[in-house]
Amino acid sequence: MTALAPLMLEDYRKVIVDRRGKEELFTYDHIMECMNKVTPLDIKQTIQVDEDLEIRAYYAGHVLGAAMNYARVGESTILYKGITI
């Protein structure tokens, strides 16, 4: 899915700037720089960012491609439901 993200962001950028005449907030180079910082996460894979931060993705099931993202920071947890790419 990470292969689609730069294409979708570039398309969004073109629509906003070229078709709607809005101010360019980011360039293609910004998109590629951002993608170099992305760490893909498989469903049910846990990533331990540091000793206090853990992230895990789960299928949301209500929309094709939707995921829920669980994060634990110290003793606090949150479950974010949204669509990931």
Write the SSE topology.
Layout: H1 4-19, H2 28-35, E1 46-48, E2 53-59, E3 66-73, E4 76-83
Antiparallel strand pairs: 1-2, 2-3, 3-4
Helix pairs in contact: 1-2
How would you sum up this structure, described in words?
The chain is of the alpha+beta class and 85 residues long. The chain folds into 2 domains: 1-38, no CATH class; 41-85. The chain is built from 2 helices and 4 strands, in the order ααββββ. The chain has helices at residues 4-19, 28-35, and strands spanning 46-48, 53-59, 66-73, 76-83. It has a 4-stranded antiparallel β-sheet with strand order 1-2-3-4, with no helix packed on it. It is elongated. The mean pLDDT is 86.
Low-confidence stretches: none
Strand numbers in spatial order across the main sheet: 1-2-3-4
The CA-CA distance between the termini, in Å, is: 6 Å
Number of helices: 2
**What is the strand content?**
25-35%
In total, the number of strands is 4
Question: What proportion of the residues is helical, as a percent range?
Answer: 25-40%
Class inferred from helices and paired strands? alpha+beta
